[in-house]
Amino acid sequence: MIYSTIAVVIFVVLLLLLFPGDREYQRIPYDVVFLGDSVYGLCRDETSIAAKLQDKTGLKCYNGGLGGTVLGRADEERRLGYTKDSISAAGLVRSFAVKDFGVQRTVHIRESATDYFEDTLGDLGQIDFDQVKILFIGSGLNDYHSGNPIESTADPYHPYDEYTYCGAIRSIVKELREAYPDLRIIFITPPYTWYTIPELTCEEYDLGGGVLEDYVNAEIGLCQALDVEVIDIYHNYYPHETWDDLYLYTDDGLHPNEAGREKIAQTIAEYLDNYSEP
To answer: Which of 97, 217, 261, 270 could bridge to 179 as Cys pair (CB 3.0-4.6 Å)?
Structure first.
């Protein structure tokens, strides 16, 4: 009995020494969590949107952005355990709601610029969402890039179809409101985007589901209908009179440069200051 007790104590001590990160994230609460694509996830240093917002507001922010991910689900075979769909905004929210990150812990993606995924997913699985005050969801560009349908055309109509853009938004809002009724949910639209190949802007480039503004307008309209907050960083936001305008706030027409990240963080900070109550 004594040896068993000693063995358990040694095991616990070794666990704490070898895995201090888990202790840290269980111990430190976050006020704000960002979910999103590479607009948020690609930059992860002190100049990231989340870090800049933390500096401006004093709110402790976590950058949960994952490049290349969608808001809804994209797998044509509609497998709920499909790796990339499990790390979509809809997939992550499902795990937050049921407090089970088992599927995400099995994710191993070896695509370019995804070396931070494992740590980020590990952190998200440790965050106590009962203490999170605000969840920002800045996804949508990859739904547009994938040509995901904006709305369900199924018969019978399925309003919560997570394989559609609006269905995923409805599902996300419903699940979060049921699981965390005090959580403030704020969507952020995709920004205006240029594509150097094939030399088209998002106003011209239709990848199967419509142009980007179709997705943005659907998101804004649905958020208004659901009485959920949305910040519009598409309309009248980035100047786009000429192609050279893309270098004002982005590196490549899509990913914000430091000036762009500063602009987005400042916009969010001003929004929070002006609309402290949902």
So the answer is: 97
